[in-house]
What does this fold into?
Amino acid sequence: MSTKDEMDNRSNQLNPNNDEYWGSRGYDGRPDDWEEEYDSLPYSSIY
It folds into this structure.
């Protein structure tokens, strides 16, 4: 079973509004224009 910290980390990595999302994808952090950047990703329209 996952710990709360593991579940929080997973949630953060799946949330484009969170720095962890961008860091897990090779960015230094969430870009200032993250909404535009997210919309330009090829997989952003999946959700």
